[in-house]
Amino acid sequence: MRTMWKGSIQFGLVYIPIKLYTATEDKDIKLRMLHKDCMAPINYTRTCSKCGKAVTPEEIIKAYEYAPEQFVPISEQELNELQDDSSKSIEIINFVNLSEIDPIYFEKSYFIGPDSGQGLRAFSLLRQTISDSDKIGLANIIIRAKQHLAAIRSYGNGMLLETLYYPDEVRSMNEVPGLSDIAPENAPKEVEIASQLVGQLTTEFKPDNYKDDYRLKMQKLIENKVAGIIPQEKKDAPRQKNVVDLLAALEASVRETKPKRRAPRRKKTV
Predict the structure, then answer these.
(1) What sequence ranges are listed for the domain Ku (predicted)?
(2) pLDDT in tens, 167-192
(3) Which residues make Cβ contacts (< 8 Å) with residue 269, sequence separation at least 6?
(4) What is the CATH number of the domain that holds 155?
(5) 3-state secondary structure at position 205
């Protein structure tokens, strides 16, 4: 597993050397763009929108567009100076209950590991302290020139750091069109049947029970095409009925999801 960030966690006056590792991976199947006639990949070149000249990486600078077609350049040195010595230190500033953070704030997860055997006792102590307290630590961290709010929590025999969006990065629900047209209350009978449907679909969360069906179908399609197997034409799926009666749709859903009873076993006659 490749290290993607190296620094330390500051817990009071205790500094714990750590490394971060990406905890998740994107398994989407990437498709290339080809020229239809030559079946060769398409190359993309960076060109100047004004003179049309192809530009090399050495000729590219960064800038901020503060008005239409008006830019202020910012050098790499100026960007680096914005990051002080604390850019490689994660200072825990507060402890909160995990249940108080709405999932909309969570962005990306990273495993936290000790750095080359250094500070193992302090690392273990922090993990146990967080685990015993049923709390998570809130901290700031700079990753790839961007500051993130982060939640640090115990996870298995280690710890997990999850970057969070800042409040001003989360859009307001009031921006969603149509919400003001929703009726404030629903019919009691509809609520009762909908609650029954939720009860029948409720189960223990087991991640292994879920899979990316689309990706598996894509892999199978690619394997068949590589092997020269011609895909069979898929029959049109039956169209779903547009049920206007909400209550009738709920009742039908309850019938379809109702667990089937097993037939009682017959007793053996001697």
Answers:
(1) 52-181
(2) 999 999 988 898 888 877 888 888 88
(3) none
(4) 2.40.290.10
(5) coil
